Amino acid sequence: MTVGSILASTVLPLAPRPMDDELLSSWLLRVACRYDLDGGDLRGILTTLGDDTEAILTMNGLDYRPTHQEIAALASAARLPVERLSTLALKTANPTWPRHWYAWDWGALDPINGTERYADALAPGWCDLCLSEDRAAGRHTYLRRHWAYAAVGFCHRHHLPLRHLCPFCQTASTLRFVPSDGGTRLSCGDCGRPLDEYAAAGPKDAAASTSTGNILIDHAWSVVMAFETDLCRALNHRTPTARWMGLSRPAGFIAATEDLIVALMAGQGAYPREHAINAFDSAAFPLSGKFRSRIDLQYWACCVPPARRRSLLAAVISLLLDEEASALVSESWIGSYRWTASLDWLYRWLGEHQRAWLVARSAEWPELLRQRLEKIADETSVRRAAHHGRKASVPRQKAGGPVARKPFPGKTQGTPPSTSQALGLQDAAHYRHLAEAILSSPEWLAVRHASPAVRRRTLHRLSEAALAASRTAHGHAGPS
Ligand SMILES: [Zn+2]
Ligand SMILES: [Zn+2]
Predict the structure, then answer these.
(1) CA-CA distance, 304 to 291, in Å (whole number)?
(2) What does pTM read for this prediction?
(3) SS3 state at 465
(4) pLDDT-based confidence at 451, cuts 50/70/90?
(5) Distance from the alpha carbon of residue 156 to the mean position of ligand 1, in angstroms
(6) Is the CB of residue 365 less than 8 Å from the CB of residue 246?
(7) Ligand that lies nearest to the alpha carbon of residue 168, given by its number in the listed order
(8) Ligand 2 geometric centre to CA of 245 (Å)
(9) Which end of the chain has fewer CB atoms < 10 Å from its terminal CB, N or C?
Protein backbone atom coordinates (compact mmCIF):
# COMPACT_ATOMS: atom_id res chain seq x y z
CA MET A 1 0.00 0.00 0.00
CA THR A 2 1.44 3.38 -0.97
CA VAL A 3 1.20 6.56 1.01
CA GLY A 4 -0.96 7.97 -1.79
CA SER A 5 -3.54 5.23 -1.59
CA ILE A 6 -3.65 5.46 2.20
CA LEU A 7 -4.28 9.16 2.13
CA ALA A 8 -6.80 9.21 -0.67
CA SER A 9 -9.51 8.00 1.70
CA THR A 10 -8.38 10.54 4.34
CA VAL A 11 -8.79 7.85 6.96
CA LEU A 12 -5.40 6.80 8.19
CA PRO A 13 -5.05 3.10 8.96
CA LEU A 14 -2.54 3.93 11.64
CA ALA A 15 -2.51 7.09 13.74
CA PRO A 16 -0.89 7.39 17.16
CA ARG A 17 -3.30 8.56 19.89
CA PRO A 18 -2.73 12.05 21.31
CA MET A 19 -1.49 12.43 24.88
CA ASP A 20 -3.70 14.49 27.19
CA ASP A 21 -1.09 17.20 27.73
CA GLU A 22 0.25 17.24 24.18
CA LEU A 23 0.46 20.08 21.72
CA LEU A 24 -1.82 19.48 18.73
CA SER A 25 1.09 20.08 16.36
CA SER A 26 3.19 17.52 18.24
CA TRP A 27 0.49 14.89 17.73
CA LEU A 28 0.11 15.66 14.02
CA LEU A 29 3.88 15.58 13.56
CA ARG A 30 3.98 12.16 15.18
CA VAL A 31 1.24 10.98 12.82
CA ALA A 32 3.10 12.40 9.83
CA CYS A 33 6.25 10.65 11.01
CA ARG A 34 4.49 7.28 10.64
CA TYR A 35 4.03 8.00 6.92
CA ASP A 36 7.43 9.54 6.41
CA LEU A 37 5.75 12.84 5.63
CA ASP A 38 6.42 16.38 6.69
CA GLY A 39 3.81 17.59 9.21
CA GLY A 40 2.78 20.47 6.98
CA ASP A 41 2.33 18.17 4.00
CA LEU A 42 0.11 15.81 5.95
CA ARG A 43 -1.91 18.74 7.26
CA GLY A 44 -2.34 20.01 3.71
CA ILE A 45 -3.42 16.60 2.44
CA LEU A 46 -5.91 15.95 5.24
CA THR A 47 -7.46 19.36 5.64
CA THR A 48 -7.45 20.93 2.19
CA LEU A 49 -8.35 17.86 0.18
CA GLY A 50 -10.12 18.95 -2.98
CA ASP A 51 -8.96 22.49 -2.53
CA ASP A 52 -6.22 22.85 -5.09
CA THR A 53 -5.58 26.53 -4.47
CA GLU A 54 -3.17 26.82 -1.57
CA ALA A 55 -1.93 23.88 0.43
CA ILE A 56 -0.96 24.48 4.03
CA LEU A 57 2.68 23.62 4.20
CA THR A 58 3.54 24.38 7.80
CA MET A 59 2.18 23.65 11.25
CA ASN A 60 1.78 27.37 11.94
CA GLY A 61 -1.52 28.42 13.44
CA LEU A 62 -2.60 24.86 14.22
CA ASP A 63 -2.06 24.94 17.98
CA TYR A 64 -3.68 28.14 19.06
CA ARG A 65 -7.20 28.22 17.67
CA PRO A 66 -7.68 25.72 14.85
CA THR A 67 -10.95 25.91 12.93
CA HIS A 68 -13.71 23.41 13.69
CA GLN A 69 -13.48 22.14 10.13
CA GLU A 70 -9.81 21.42 10.45
CA ILE A 71 -10.22 19.62 13.78
CA ALA A 72 -13.12 17.62 12.32
CA ALA A 73 -11.07 16.62 9.27
CA LEU A 74 -8.06 15.58 11.39
CA ALA A 75 -10.22 13.71 13.88
CA SER A 76 -12.02 11.79 11.17
CA ALA A 77 -8.74 10.90 9.45
CA ALA A 78 -7.35 9.56 12.72
CA ARG A 79 -10.66 7.96 13.80
CA LEU A 80 -10.75 10.03 16.96
CA PRO A 81 -13.65 11.83 18.65
CA VAL A 82 -13.54 15.52 17.71
CA GLU A 83 -13.42 16.51 21.41
CA ARG A 84 -10.29 14.44 21.94
CA LEU A 85 -8.43 16.68 19.49
CA SER A 86 -10.16 19.98 20.15
CA THR A 87 -9.15 19.89 23.83
CA LEU A 88 -5.52 19.96 22.73
CA ALA A 89 -5.89 23.40 21.16
CA LEU A 90 -4.40 26.11 23.37
CA LYS A 91 -7.49 28.29 23.21
CA THR A 92 -9.64 25.39 24.42
CA ALA A 93 -7.18 24.16 27.04
CA ASN A 94 -6.67 27.63 28.51
CA PRO A 95 -9.61 29.77 27.42
CA THR A 96 -8.67 32.69 29.71
CA TRP A 97 -5.07 33.06 28.53
CA PRO A 98 -4.18 35.96 26.25
CA ARG A 99 -2.20 35.06 23.16
CA HIS A 100 0.90 36.81 24.41
CA TRP A 101 1.24 34.35 27.28
CA TYR A 102 2.34 31.65 24.84
CA ALA A 103 5.86 31.32 23.52
CA TRP A 104 5.95 32.48 19.91
CA ASP A 105 8.76 32.50 17.47
CA TRP A 106 8.69 36.24 17.10
CA GLY A 107 6.50 39.25 17.79
CA ALA A 108 6.33 42.80 16.62
CA LEU A 109 4.75 46.00 17.71
CA ASP A 110 3.24 47.79 14.76
CA PRO A 111 4.92 51.22 14.78
CA ILE A 112 1.85 52.82 13.16
CA ASN A 113 -0.96 51.80 15.48
CA GLY A 114 0.85 50.11 18.36
CA THR A 115 -0.94 46.77 17.96
CA GLU A 116 1.03 43.62 18.61
CA ARG A 117 1.43 40.87 16.08
CA TYR A 118 2.91 37.47 16.73
CA ALA A 119 4.19 34.78 14.48
CA ASP A 120 1.86 31.84 14.06
CA ALA A 121 4.74 29.52 14.89
CA LEU A 122 4.98 28.36 18.49
CA ALA A 123 8.43 28.12 20.03
CA PRO A 124 8.16 25.39 22.69
CA GLY A 125 11.08 24.41 24.90
CA TRP A 126 11.64 20.86 26.15
CA CYS A 127 12.97 18.82 29.05
CA ASP A 128 15.48 16.04 28.30
CA LEU A 129 14.40 14.04 31.32
CA CYS A 130 10.73 14.07 30.36
CA LEU A 131 11.66 12.88 26.86
CA SER A 132 13.89 10.21 28.29
CA GLU A 133 11.09 9.05 30.62
CA ASP A 134 8.85 8.70 27.56
CA ARG A 135 11.42 6.38 26.03
CA ALA A 136 11.85 4.40 29.22
CA ALA A 137 8.08 3.94 29.47
CA GLY A 138 7.96 2.71 25.89
CA ARG A 139 5.87 5.62 24.57
CA HIS A 140 6.52 8.09 21.80
CA THR A 141 8.38 11.16 22.94
CA TYR A 142 6.09 14.18 22.55
CA LEU A 143 5.95 17.94 23.14
CA ARG A 144 3.99 18.95 26.24
CA ARG A 145 1.50 21.79 25.95
CA HIS A 146 2.99 23.65 28.92
CA TRP A 147 6.37 23.78 27.19
CA ALA A 148 4.81 26.47 24.98
CA TYR A 149 3.65 28.65 27.87
CA ALA A 150 5.44 31.98 28.20
CA ALA A 151 4.78 31.79 31.94
CA VAL A 152 6.80 28.57 32.27
CA GLY A 153 10.57 28.36 31.80
CA PHE A 154 11.14 25.20 33.86
CA CYS A 155 10.15 21.57 33.90
CA HIS A 156 8.35 21.57 37.24
CA ARG A 157 8.48 17.79 37.31
CA HIS A 158 12.26 17.60 37.16
CA HIS A 159 13.11 21.07 38.53
CA LEU A 160 15.22 21.85 35.49
CA PRO A 161 15.26 24.76 33.05
CA LEU A 162 13.57 24.00 29.74
CA ARG A 163 15.89 23.90 26.77
CA HIS A 164 15.53 25.67 23.48
CA LEU A 165 19.01 24.96 22.13
CA CYS A 166 20.11 21.50 21.06
CA PRO A 167 22.54 20.34 23.79
CA PHE A 168 24.66 18.58 21.17
CA CYS A 169 25.10 21.23 18.49
CA GLN A 170 23.83 24.32 20.37
CA THR A 171 21.58 25.42 17.53
CA ALA A 172 18.00 26.55 17.95
CA SER A 173 16.82 24.74 14.87
CA THR A 174 13.41 23.23 14.32
CA LEU A 175 12.54 20.05 16.17
CA ARG A 176 11.78 16.91 14.18
CA PHE A 177 10.12 13.67 14.99
CA VAL A 178 11.89 10.61 13.58
CA PRO A 179 10.67 7.00 13.51
CA SER A 180 12.33 4.75 16.05
CA ASP A 181 11.50 1.20 17.18
CA GLY A 182 7.89 1.50 16.04
CA GLY A 183 7.56 4.82 17.87
CA THR A 184 8.84 8.33 17.32
CA ARG A 185 11.65 10.29 18.88
CA LEU A 186 12.12 14.01 19.05
CA SER A 187 15.35 15.04 17.39
CA CYS A 188 17.34 18.12 16.56
CA GLY A 189 16.51 19.30 13.05
CA ASP A 190 20.12 20.30 12.56
CA CYS A 191 22.41 17.56 13.87
CA GLY A 192 19.73 14.88 13.94
CA ARG A 193 20.57 13.59 17.44
CA PRO A 194 17.58 12.41 19.50
CA LEU A 195 17.08 14.98 22.27
CA ASP A 196 16.27 12.40 24.95
CA GLU A 197 19.78 10.98 24.56
CA TYR A 198 21.27 13.88 26.41
CA ALA A 199 19.55 12.96 29.67
CA ALA A 200 20.93 9.40 29.44
CA ALA A 201 24.44 10.80 29.13
CA GLY A 202 24.43 11.49 32.92
CA PRO A 203 23.65 14.44 35.17
CA LYS A 204 25.25 17.64 33.94
CA ASP A 205 22.91 20.28 35.19
CA ALA A 206 23.98 22.41 38.08
CA ALA A 207 21.12 21.36 40.33
CA ALA A 208 22.18 17.74 40.17
CA SER A 209 25.21 18.47 42.33
CA THR A 210 25.12 19.46 45.99
CA SER A 211 27.87 22.05 46.33
CA THR A 212 26.94 25.29 48.06
CA GLY A 213 26.78 27.23 44.82
CA ASN A 214 24.41 24.71 43.36
CA ILE A 215 22.21 24.69 46.44
CA LEU A 216 21.81 28.43 45.92
CA ILE A 217 21.02 27.91 42.26
CA ASP A 218 18.48 25.26 43.17
CA HIS A 219 16.88 27.66 45.63
CA ALA A 220 16.77 30.46 43.06
CA TRP A 221 15.14 28.10 40.56
CA SER A 222 12.54 27.00 43.14
CA VAL A 223 11.60 30.61 43.83
CA VAL A 224 11.04 31.29 40.14
CA MET A 225 9.09 28.05 39.71
CA ALA A 226 6.82 29.06 42.59
CA PHE A 227 6.21 32.38 40.84
CA GLU A 228 5.46 30.57 37.59
CA THR A 229 2.88 28.45 39.40
CA ASP A 230 1.17 31.60 40.64
CA LEU A 231 1.35 33.19 37.20
CA CYS A 232 -0.46 30.20 35.73
CA ARG A 233 -3.03 30.32 38.54
CA ALA A 234 -3.64 34.00 37.80
CA LEU A 235 -3.89 33.35 34.06
CA ASN A 236 -6.55 30.77 34.89
CA HIS A 237 -8.39 33.49 36.86
CA ARG A 238 -7.52 31.92 40.19
CA THR A 239 -6.13 33.94 43.08
CA PRO A 240 -2.33 33.83 43.35
CA THR A 241 -0.65 33.56 46.76
CA ALA A 242 0.05 36.80 48.62
CA ARG A 243 3.79 36.06 48.80
CA TRP A 244 4.76 38.28 45.86
CA MET A 245 2.53 41.35 45.81
CA GLY A 246 0.30 40.97 48.83
CA LEU A 247 -3.34 40.14 48.41
CA SER A 248 -3.85 40.14 44.64
CA ARG A 249 -6.67 39.76 42.21
CA PRO A 250 -5.55 37.62 39.25
CA ALA A 251 -5.84 40.50 36.75
CA GLY A 252 -3.81 42.85 38.97
CA PHE A 253 -1.11 40.22 39.44
CA ILE A 254 -0.80 39.69 35.68
CA ALA A 255 -0.85 43.42 34.97
CA ALA A 256 1.94 44.15 37.44
CA THR A 257 4.08 41.29 36.11
CA GLU A 258 3.62 42.41 32.51
CA ASP A 259 4.34 46.05 33.32
CA LEU A 260 7.49 45.27 35.28
CA ILE A 261 8.72 43.13 32.40
CA VAL A 262 8.07 45.98 29.96
CA ALA A 263 9.93 48.37 32.27
CA LEU A 264 12.86 45.95 32.55
CA MET A 265 13.07 45.76 28.77
CA ALA A 266 12.58 49.46 28.12
CA GLY A 267 15.48 51.21 26.48
CA GLN A 268 17.60 53.89 28.14
CA GLY A 269 20.15 54.85 25.52
CA ALA A 270 22.12 57.02 27.92
CA TYR A 271 23.10 54.11 30.15
CA PRO A 272 25.82 51.66 29.28
CA ARG A 273 23.53 48.68 29.60
CA GLU A 274 20.69 50.31 27.65
CA HIS A 275 18.02 48.01 29.08
CA ALA A 276 17.53 47.39 32.79
CA ILE A 277 17.36 43.64 32.27
CA ASN A 278 21.02 43.63 31.22
CA ALA A 279 21.98 44.44 34.80
CA PHE A 280 20.53 41.14 36.01
CA ASP A 281 23.01 38.33 35.64
CA SER A 282 23.57 35.45 38.00
CA ALA A 283 24.75 31.87 38.15
CA ALA A 284 21.15 30.67 38.38
CA PHE A 285 19.97 32.89 35.52
CA PRO A 286 22.92 33.70 33.30
CA LEU A 287 22.13 36.26 30.65
CA SER A 288 22.18 34.74 27.22
CA GLY A 289 23.94 37.72 25.70
CA LYS A 290 22.97 41.33 26.06
CA PHE A 291 19.33 42.07 25.43
CA ARG A 292 18.83 44.44 22.53
CA SER A 293 15.51 45.60 21.28
CA ARG A 294 15.39 45.71 17.51
CA ILE A 295 14.36 49.03 16.07
CA ASP A 296 10.71 48.41 15.30
CA LEU A 297 10.30 45.15 17.18
CA GLN A 298 9.20 45.51 20.75
CA TYR A 299 9.47 42.10 22.26
CA TRP A 300 7.32 41.04 25.03
CA ALA A 301 8.34 38.03 27.07
CA CYS A 302 6.41 35.74 24.72
CA CYS A 303 8.88 36.21 21.92
CA VAL A 304 12.18 35.60 23.69
CA PRO A 305 13.83 32.22 24.40
CA PRO A 306 12.96 30.49 27.70
CA ALA A 307 16.35 31.43 29.19
CA ARG A 308 15.53 35.11 28.74
CA ARG A 309 12.03 34.61 30.13
CA ARG A 310 13.44 32.92 33.22
CA SER A 311 15.80 35.82 33.84
CA LEU A 312 12.95 38.29 33.30
CA LEU A 313 10.81 36.53 35.88
CA ALA A 314 13.79 36.29 38.26
CA ALA A 315 14.32 40.04 37.80
CA VAL A 316 10.64 40.77 38.48
CA ILE A 317 10.81 38.70 41.68
CA SER A 318 13.95 40.47 42.86
CA LEU A 319 12.10 43.78 42.43
CA LEU A 320 9.20 42.41 44.47
CA LEU A 321 11.02 40.53 47.23
CA ASP A 322 14.09 42.20 48.69
CA GLU A 323 14.87 39.05 50.69
CA GLU A 324 15.22 36.94 47.54
CA ALA A 325 17.19 39.47 45.50
CA SER A 326 20.58 38.13 46.62
CA ALA A 327 19.67 34.60 45.51
CA LEU A 328 18.39 35.77 42.15
CA VAL A 329 20.97 38.40 41.27
CA SER A 330 24.61 37.64 41.94
CA GLU A 331 26.11 40.82 40.56
CA SER A 332 26.19 43.67 43.02
CA TRP A 333 28.39 46.08 41.10
CA ILE A 334 27.72 47.91 37.87
CA GLY A 335 30.94 49.50 36.76
CA SER A 336 32.13 51.34 39.82
CA TYR A 337 28.95 51.72 41.81
CA ARG A 338 27.25 49.27 44.09
CA TRP A 339 23.94 48.05 42.85
CA THR A 340 20.98 46.46 44.56
CA ALA A 341 18.03 45.27 42.56
CA SER A 342 14.88 46.92 43.86
CA LEU A 343 11.73 48.57 42.64
CA ASP A 344 13.21 51.85 43.82
CA TRP A 345 16.26 51.30 41.63
CA LEU A 346 14.16 50.43 38.58
CA TYR A 347 12.01 53.52 39.02
CA ARG A 348 15.00 55.83 39.29
CA TRP A 349 16.64 54.14 36.32
CA LEU A 350 13.66 54.74 34.02
CA GLY A 351 13.25 57.84 31.89
CA GLU A 352 10.63 60.43 32.71
CA HIS A 353 7.98 59.15 30.26
CA GLN A 354 8.61 55.57 31.29
CA ARG A 355 8.15 56.46 34.95
CA ALA A 356 4.91 58.24 34.20
CA TRP A 357 3.73 55.21 32.27
CA LEU A 358 4.60 52.81 35.09
CA VAL A 359 2.86 54.98 37.63
CA ALA A 360 -0.25 55.23 35.44
CA ARG A 361 -0.28 51.50 34.89
CA SER A 362 0.09 50.75 38.59
CA ALA A 363 -3.53 51.81 39.08
CA GLU A 364 -4.31 48.24 37.92
CA TRP A 365 -1.81 46.55 40.26
CA PRO A 366 -2.45 44.83 43.59
CA GLU A 367 -2.95 47.54 46.20
CA LEU A 368 0.18 46.88 48.30
CA LEU A 369 2.46 47.04 45.30
CA ARG A 370 0.68 50.12 43.98
CA GLN A 371 1.24 51.84 47.31
CA ARG A 372 4.91 50.85 47.25
CA LEU A 373 5.39 52.46 43.85
CA GLU A 374 3.43 55.51 44.94
CA LYS A 375 5.77 55.96 47.89
CA ILE A 376 8.84 55.56 45.67
CA ALA A 377 7.41 58.05 43.14
CA ASP A 378 6.68 60.55 45.91
CA GLU A 379 10.14 60.25 47.40
CA THR A 380 11.80 60.60 44.02
CA SER A 381 9.70 63.65 43.29
CA VAL A 382 10.63 65.22 46.64
CA ARG A 383 14.30 64.43 46.10
CA ARG A 384 14.20 65.96 42.65
CA ALA A 385 12.42 69.05 43.88
CA ALA A 386 15.06 69.47 46.60
CA HIS A 387 17.79 69.03 44.00
CA HIS A 388 16.30 71.66 41.69
CA GLY A 389 15.68 73.90 44.70
CA ARG A 390 19.37 73.86 45.46
CA LYS A 391 20.39 74.38 41.87
CA ALA A 392 18.21 77.34 40.98
CA SER A 393 17.25 80.29 43.12
CA VAL A 394 13.55 80.16 42.45
CA PRO A 395 10.82 81.37 44.79
CA ARG A 396 10.16 78.63 47.34
CA GLN A 397 7.07 76.56 46.86
CA LYS A 398 4.37 76.60 49.46
CA ALA A 399 4.65 73.89 52.09
CA GLY A 400 3.76 70.57 50.53
CA GLY A 401 4.56 71.91 47.07
CA PRO A 402 6.58 68.94 45.89
CA VAL A 403 3.86 66.53 47.06
CA ALA A 404 1.25 68.48 45.14
CA ARG A 405 3.33 67.90 42.00
CA LYS A 406 3.60 64.19 42.61
CA PRO A 407 3.31 62.23 39.39
CA PHE A 408 1.03 59.60 40.85
CA PRO A 409 -2.46 59.63 39.38
CA GLY A 410 -5.64 58.77 41.21
CA LYS A 411 -7.15 55.33 40.82
CA THR A 412 -9.56 56.74 38.24
CA GLN A 413 -6.75 57.10 35.75
CA GLY A 414 -7.89 56.94 32.13
CA THR A 415 -6.29 54.82 29.45
CA PRO A 416 -2.62 54.51 30.28
CA PRO A 417 -0.10 55.50 27.64
CA SER A 418 0.50 52.80 25.08
CA THR A 419 3.36 50.37 25.39
CA SER A 420 5.13 52.21 22.62
CA GLN A 421 5.28 55.29 24.82
CA ALA A 422 6.57 53.28 27.73
CA LEU A 423 9.22 51.85 25.54
CA GLY A 424 10.21 55.28 24.34
CA LEU A 425 9.09 54.89 20.74
CA GLN A 426 7.64 58.38 20.54
CA ASP A 427 10.65 59.60 22.39
CA ALA A 428 12.93 57.94 19.93
CA ALA A 429 11.22 59.61 16.96
CA HIS A 430 11.21 62.92 18.76
CA TYR A 431 14.89 62.72 19.59
CA ARG A 432 15.70 61.57 16.10
CA HIS A 433 14.14 64.76 14.76
CA LEU A 434 16.14 66.77 17.27
CA ALA A 435 19.29 64.97 16.22
CA GLU A 436 18.57 65.56 12.55
CA ALA A 437 18.05 69.27 13.25
CA ILE A 438 21.33 69.44 15.16
CA LEU A 439 23.29 67.59 12.49
CA SER A 440 22.09 69.96 9.77
CA SER A 441 22.62 73.13 11.84
CA PRO A 442 25.27 75.69 10.75
CA GLU A 443 27.02 75.35 14.15
CA TRP A 444 27.52 71.64 13.63
CA LEU A 445 28.52 71.96 9.97
CA ALA A 446 31.13 74.53 11.00
CA VAL A 447 32.94 72.04 13.24
CA ARG A 448 32.45 69.02 10.98
CA HIS A 449 36.19 68.71 10.35
CA ALA A 450 37.37 69.86 13.77
CA SER A 451 38.99 67.55 16.31
CA PRO A 452 36.86 64.89 18.02
CA ALA A 453 37.03 66.81 21.32
CA VAL A 454 35.70 70.00 19.72
CA ARG A 455 32.96 68.09 17.92
CA ARG A 456 32.00 66.31 21.12
CA ARG A 457 31.79 69.58 23.05
CA THR A 458 29.78 71.23 20.29
CA LEU A 459 27.42 68.31 20.03
CA HIS A 460 26.93 68.31 23.77
CA ARG A 461 26.17 72.05 23.80
CA LEU A 462 23.75 71.82 20.86
CA SER A 463 21.98 68.79 22.38
CA GLU A 464 21.57 70.48 25.74
CA ALA A 465 20.09 73.55 24.06
CA ALA A 466 17.76 71.48 21.87
CA LEU A 467 16.56 69.35 24.78
CA ALA A 468 15.94 72.40 26.95
CA ALA A 469 13.96 74.03 24.13
CA SER A 470 11.93 70.88 23.56
CA ARG A 471 11.15 70.53 27.26
CA THR A 472 9.87 74.09 27.39
CA ALA A 473 7.81 73.55 24.25
CA HIS A 474 6.22 70.40 25.70
CA GLY A 475 5.51 71.88 29.10
CA HIS A 476 8.08 69.67 30.88
CA ALA A 477 10.07 72.62 32.10
CA GLY A 478 10.28 71.31 35.64
CA PRO A 479 10.34 73.48 38.73
CA SER A 480 13.35 75.63 37.86
ZN1 LIG B 1 11.04 17.12 32.86
ZN1 LIG C 1 21.63 19.48 17.29
Answers:
(1) 10
(2) 0.76
(3) helix
(4) low
(5) 7
(6) no
(7) 2
(8) 41
(9) N
